[in-house]
Amino acid sequence: MITIGRLARYVGVSIKTIRVYHAKGLLPEPDRDTSGYRRYGADDAVDLIKIRTLADAGVPLARIRDLRSATDEEFQQALREIDDELTDRIHGLRATQGRLHRLAAGHLTLLPAEVDAHLENLARWEFTPRWVDLQRDLWILVFAAHPDRATALFHDQAETLADPALRRLFLDYDHAHDLDADDPRIDDLARRIAEATRERYESDDPPELDAASDIPALIQDTVNASSSAWQRLDTLIRAHLARR
Amino acid sequence: MITIGRLARYVGVSIKTIRVYHAKGLLPEPDRDTSGYRRYGADDAVDLIKIRTLADAGVPLARIRDLRSATDEEFQQALREIDDELTDRIHGLRATQGRLHRLAAGHLTLLPAEVDAHLENLARWEFTPRWVDLQRDLWILVFAAHPDRATALFHDQAETLADPALRRLFLDYDHAHDLDADDPRIDDLARRIAEATRERYESDDPPELDAASDIPALIQDTVNASSSAWQRLDTLIRAHLARR
DNA sequence: CTGCAACCCTGCCCCAGGGGAAGGGTCAAG
DNA sequence: CTTGACCCTTCCCCTGGGGCAGGGTTGCAG
């Protein structure tokens, strides 16, 4: 009959772990020798190996304890469930690994490939890196918050930018960043953008506003904070559009 | 600027989680509005998504915090390490899954296929199920405790049982279980076993005794506990062998 | 304007699955 | 007879949050 330390070394767990399993009723307390030391037999070691196999599979100790008093039927059923959970966890870890790779590659999380392509187009069309980064942030948020509507919203935006005249307006918006807040070109640009927006969305609700609820507002606030010219431009455009 | 609840829903975490990240320095505390509510911007959301990607990969929060102040070089290096750890974890989970399958199949943990085959042979040779189970326990322990020596030890034992005359002795041992402790056949059997053992291992140390250290003793104690006849048989054999 | 639901705040204790330390007893070898 | 390696119990610590109490705020409906 061996001591707790030997048993622990055999099975490859700590002494503490064994004592915890006793305390939680996973492994019955064995008899003690005359000096009060726990003494274990082979069946304890076998039990402990079973417990560790389940624990390594992520089964909570309480469930392992309950399984001790289960019928063979129930036990097999439980094993199947645990196996399925394990499979799911493996898939989950692989998905996380994929996200990790994208984080490493710079575009920090799951954006559909077409969005990445679009962002590269922006750079080619000579939008500033600042603008491209803001757009990336925006799409990440939109896809995180409204994965269902994000694709449609994105397609609308990509279409808009495919039109050279409309693209010009966005480029001007981009470059307005460094103007003085009271530059008259801002008033002109606001008028032109409001006009184009009304033209493009003859109905009164452009998809950006209703679809992604307040995420664009969130982005817009951040955007505005980086340039007083942009802030004024935003205010002017809203005023134009509100005036029907 | 959005509230904590909105941010939480966007990113798919609980409010509590965000507050914990603030408390642990993972995510800087944002400014408060007039009523003391935290108000977040888009960059907070992007940061939070990054944090969650790492946390989902199992990176401890303290390490994520430290990574916030790392150079790009260090960050990429860390990502590679995390990726490797993830790969290891996936492999580990698959190994656990394999052990789980064997547990489900009855032979409760990793026994080499040849040991399983051997145990089936025992049943065919008409050893009792009780004996086969004891042998299974023994080999599980031996392979768990001394994987390096277990194979050689096992081959020795398998060889021994391949000899019909020696096998006869083990069968007699098995069936002695139900004899009275003072049955004279036990004395006879003990003598024959001691003789055969000496014959087989002309040197004085049979591999069982030195190789697997005290595991056989562990098994033997358990074995003896189940039958006073076995207990006496064991004592007699030891006495015979000790007398050179 | 008043209610009331849905938010938000802080501070506190709880969980698993142990780790580690304190403070003490036991055993075997030299 | 000491020394080192064991063992015993009890206690607090850690992570990654969950949940509750007890309070303040906001916005919308009646």
Task: Quickly list its features.
MerR-type_HTH_dom (chains A, B), homodimer, 244 residues, 0% strand, mainly alpha, rod-shaped, MerR family transcriptional regulator (chains A, B), Multidrug-efflux Transporter Regulator, Chain: A, Domain 2, DNA-binding
Outline the structure in words.
Chains A, B: Keywords: DNA-binding. Chains A, B: Residues 1-70 form the HTH merR-type domain. The structure is a homodimer of 244-residue chains. Chain A is mostly helical and 244 residues long. Chain A has 2 domains: 4-99, Multidrug-efflux Transporter Regulator, Chain: A, Domain 2; 109-242, no CATH class. The first copy, chain A, has 13 helices and no strands. Chain A is rod-shaped. The first copy, chain A, starts with a helix and ends with a helix. Chain A binds a DNA duplex (30 and 30 nucleotides) through α2.
